[in-house]
Design a protein that fits this description.
Length: 228
């Protein structure tokens, strides 16, 4: 009996160690994230599942000083995952287009940083240029000039006509940054959850549909694609 209890104790200790390791890794090193909306098309598609590098920015992303580790700050062009300034319980992903001290202006849907037009045609797309008289589109297509405060970032979706971003909710405080999008480990072209809890039944149905369509709806060509 003593030997049997010893074996179970070893199993329990192993599970506890594994859980602590996974928690540490998910908190400080790497995290998974999936894309529920089209705001980053065509760089990221609905159903893309990502690994997020939480180690790269480290303390500097929050403005802390004195770090001895070789972390770097967020740079223009980085695709970052962060907590929503309006709802910190919600994670978002956008591209950083400007850092503290930069002046941002959008003129007729063309992004300008520090008075110069940004050559972003390799990733920025315009899929719905019509404004339909909605006053919100005035901010979308003609914004600023606005100078990003220190310790903040200005983030925009690559799908410039369909992205709720810094043009609407303002600059992103550095302490909300969680990490940099690293690569796509799986891309699923079927139904994708919008991130809202709709009950156990809906969750089980989604899991069943994913299992049935795993091979036929997986976008294999996007697997292990680096995110740039």
């Amino acid at each position: 009996m003593a030997e049997e209890r010893s074996i179970w104790r070893e199993y329990l200790e192993a599970l506890i160690i594994a859980a602590v390791f996974l928690l540490f890794t998910n908190t400080f090193v790497i995290q998974t994230f999936y894309i529920p909306s089209g705001s980053m098309e065509d760089t990221l598609l609905i159903g893309d599942h990502l690994f997020v590098n939480r180690f790269i920015y480290g303390a500097r992303a929050t403005g802390a000083e004195g770090s001895l580790l070789p972390f770097r700050g967020v740079k223009r062009g980085d695709i970052v995952v962060f907590r929503s300034p309006e709802n910190p319980a919600l994670d978002l992903v956008k591209r950083c287009v400007a850092v503290g001290g930069d002046t941002v202006q959008v003129v007729d849907a063309q992004l300008h940083i520090n008075g110069k037009a940004v050559k972003d045609s390799s990733y920025a797309v315009h899929k719905n240029p019509d404004a339909f008289g909605d006053p919100r589109f005035m901010v979308r297509d003609n914004y600023g000039p606005f100078t990003v405060p220190a310790g903040h970032y200005f983030c925009m979706g690559d799908n410039r006509d369909n992205s709720y971003d810094s043009r609407f909710w303002g600059p992103l405080p550095a302490h909300l940054v969680k990490g940099r999008a690293l690569f796509i480990y799986w891309s699923y072209g079927g139904k994708t959850s919008n991130g809202q809890w709709e009950g156990l039944g809906a969750k089980l149905r989604d899991l069943g549909e994913t299992a049935v369509g795993f091979f036929s709806k997986t976008r294999w060509e996007r697997s292990f694609r680096l995110i740039r």
